[in-house]
Amino acid sequence: MSERRTAAVAAVAVVVLLLLVAVVGPAAVSARPANETIGEATLSDLGASDTEPVEDHPVSDLLASLAGDDAVERRRAALALAEREGDRVVVEALSRTATTDEDAEVRQFAVEALAKHGGDLAAETARALTDDPDPWVRAEAVVALDRLDRGEHEAVIEAALDDEHHAARRNALVSLFKLRGEGACDALVAAADDPSERVREWAAHLLGGVETDRAAEALSRLADDEQSVVRETAVRAQEVDSGSFRRQFTGVLDETDRTLPGEDDLNRTPNL
């Protein structure tokens, strides 16, 4: 699932919502800076995450589709293989696809699937993809490392805080908070000054789980942010119980971690 949606998504938004097609991205209704737009998509692209058409296909057929010429079918096959038995052939095929496919969304879906299978090859592949040329693949690679073992891959995840793209930085921030709790205060306070409103929004949200003077000061600044979605998130964060908040953030990164109050499915993030 990808945040690569712009005007094309706007054109099909009503159809997508009526069909309950979950696409990922940032907070819904606020205007976004030019570098946080969501790319182009066709109805075929948007349907790639629907694996129902291939749910009864044998693994051999899915592997054939994964190596085929149709990018949408390759994306669908990668997602479907995430739910199948992860034998060596499947894992190796997904790893090969994640690192060599010319279509960035296929690579993104493949590393997502690999993380669900787990194992050394999945980890090796995800680490390599944190340097992928496509930002959404890098962002998904961070999610994969979080799912596989965020403690073991802490250094690689932390390095993603310096990624040039907001999605990778945001995913790294959420993962480190899950790992460190209040120990992530330094990273969260730094993220409060991130150029991306999306990262600042998540910094504000997560600072609600840190009960320190520095966190309170950062939230006060964010409550006066130029972007309304950041201000509103900071105000809510100032009102939560920090201990209870931290206990909510214990599992792997998933769709629920990527939806803040006020977001919708059309404008969410990579399957993070």
Automatic annotation (TrEMBL):
<dbReference type="Pfam" id="PF13646">
    <property type="entry name" value="HEAT_2"/>
</dbReference>
<dbReference type="InterPro" id="IPR011989">
    <property type="entry name" value="ARM-like"/>
</dbReference>
<feature type="compositionally biased region" description="Basic and acidic residues">
    <location>
        <begin position="255"/>
        <end position="272"/>
    </location>
</feature>
<dbReference type="GO" id="GO:0016491">
    <property type="term" value="F:oxidoreductase activity"/>
</dbReference>
<feature type="region of interest" description="Disordered">
    <location>
        <begin position="252"/>
        <end position="272"/>
    </location>
</feature>
<dbReference type="InterPro" id="IPR016024">
    <property type="entry name" value="ARM-type_fold"/>
</dbReference>
<dbReference type="InterPro" id="IPR004155">
    <property type="entry name" value="PBS_lyase_HEAT"/>
</dbReference>
<protein>
    <submittedName>
        <fullName>Protein phosphatase</fullName>
    </submittedName>
</protein>
